[in-house]
Amino acid sequence: MSVDSTQRIQPTIDDARQALSEHFGYQSFRPGQERVIAAVLAGRDVMAVMPTGAGKSVCYEVPAVVLGGLTLVVSPLISLMADQVRALKEAGIRGSFYNSTLKPRVRPEVLRRALAGWYDLMYVAPERLGDPGFRAFAAAADIPLVAVDEAHCVSQWGQDFRPAYRAIRDFVDSLPNRPRVAALTATATARVQTDVRELLGLRDPVIEVSGFDRPNLQLASFELTPKDRERWTVNYARQHPGESGIVYALTRKKVEQICERLQDAGIKAASYHAGMSDSERTLSQQAFVNDDVHVLVATNAFGMGIDKSNVRYVINCGMPQSLEEYYQEAGRAGRDGDPAACYLLWSRGDIRTAHFFIDNIEYAEGVTPAEQRFLREQRERLLGEMIGYAMSTSCLRARVLRYFGQRMVLPPDGCGGCSVCTGETAERYLKVERRRQAGGRVFGAGGRALDDVRRERDERLDAVADAWVHDGSDEELFQRLRVLRKSLASEAHVAPYMIFSDRTLRAMVRRRPRSREDLLEVPGVGEVKLSKYGDAFLEELCR
């Protein structure tokens, strides 16, 4: 018989803040997070729409720690679940996963351990929710919260419709004691939001829609021929040696072609697409996440749920099929809040290719001809919005925000952060970057100094006005800390970002902590990671 989680003493938001500090090293929640978490702790259903990089995962990770029992996270990201569990372990949170990658003989043991209280949180693929064995397990478990990640996958109006998501509501309703349900997504128009509420059966949910603007992202759209955009991409990567970037291409052939050109230019690059074996894709993904390669060239098969925080640029060599898809891909840049650039390089041929893809969609079994016609019409509508963005003669940032239902009041000189408002061309962008590399210290075409952007970010997020050291030692120390992080990550068999983000390393450089107490004050350094890595970083900082 399952435990009725509603009978236990409910934790408070102060308990949640304590967990945030201990496990993640932050003293306060980001905008939107606290309201979502407070609602979950109060027993309410929640729908949270937050842009990529806003910290959606904290909205179920912190409750998983303080609620007790086992939080279930329904996620389509099967290939990433093992990495996500490793990241939780680094933060001192007990995680597990249940999906098709587990060997049949292992699955009962995972469920047995979950019932015995070994885990705070379990990732589960939506397809597993119908398994009789999993249903029996869930009926016996103490499940205070079911979090639905990438919740837009339940809606046919979105670009990532996944039929298995339609079974989530029935699964939740089948549990002896209905848990809270939290639906989280980065991409949801008003229509998709309505679908999510209805199809997941959310009961009087608290709705949190954070702003979609990512002010640290520079947006640009350039019409270039396929050959010119490949040449442009190689030149851009050359001008950003050592920086992490993602290049998206429309076909497997283009992925391999661009990757080869980058490698020929001396750039550490790897490819990722559905034509590769699972092991090959895993090796490419791990090499990128672990900073063993700097550029990953991929189809849209890569990216959802990737939590690498220091991606400095995303280049789309070809037009995605929807503005949701594009903004989600572009949003993988600059998750750490530092300046990052997002380039859409498109040609008229991309439009023909997109129509071809729409006409040759492989539908799931059981989808009727009428439903197929409906889905094609929606895909064409989504493509039309994407084409409008690519060809836009008005502010790109305002156009994106308007699409997601958010207004933006533009100053007379424009947003200063997109190619339309700054009047830049593809060639001039490369010239600007060459000036920056030569010491001009400009960011994109907006003319803002890179240090200024970082300083404003730090003041906003950190409330610390300490100036950067300007004698060159700051960058040298930052690179030393990155080398140390990479070494520690290799020893622990985790990705470097799982230890500390670039943002946390820069805060260490700025503050120059000299003791464990000082280091604990650095945002991103919690008690768990202090005990694991604090002494090693202090030794490097005090050299």
What is the level-2 CATH architecture name of the largest domain? 3-Layer(aba) Sandwich
Spatial sequence of strands, sheet with the most strands? 3-4-2-5-6-1-7
Strand content: 5-15%
Mean model confidence by pLDDT = 87
CATH T-level topology of the largest domain = Rossmann fold
CATH superfamily of the largest domain: P-loop containing nucleotide triphosphate hydrolases
Tally of extended strands? 15
- Determine the fraction of residues in helical runs and give it as a percent range: 40-55%
Provide an overview of this structure.
- The chain is α/β, with parallel strands linked by helices.
- It folds into three domains: 205 residues, Rossmann fold, CATH 3.40.50.300; 206 residues, Rossmann fold, CATH 3.40.50.300; 69 residues, DNA polymerase, domain 1 (Orthogonal Bundle).
- The chain is built from 23 helices and 15 strands.
- Helix 11 links the parallel strand 10 and strand 11.
- Helix 1 packs across helix 3.
- The longest helix is centred in the C-terminal third of the chain and has 22 residues.
- The radius of gyration is 23 Å and the shape is globular.
Topology:
Elements lengths: L12 H12 L8 H9 L4 E4 L8 H10 L3 E4 L6 H10 L4 E4 L8 H9 L5 E4 L7 H9 L4 E4 L19 H7 L5 E6 L4 H10 L6 E4 L7 E7 L2 H13 L5 E6 L2 H13 L4 E4 L5 H12 L5 E4 L12 E7 L5 H8 L9 E7 L1 H12 L9 H22 L5 H8 L15 H4 L3 H15 L1 E2 L4 E2 H13 L10 H20 L3 H4 L2 H10 L4 H5 L6 H15 L2
Parallel strand pairs: 1-6, 1-7, 2-4, 2-5, 3-4, 5-6, 8-13, 9-11, 9-12, 10-11, 12-13
Antiparallel strand pairs: 14-15
Please give a handful of descriptors for the protein shown.
Rossmann fold; 543 residues; DNA polymerase, domain 1; six-stranded parallel β-sheet; seven-stranded parallel β-sheet; 23 helices; 3 domains; alpha/beta
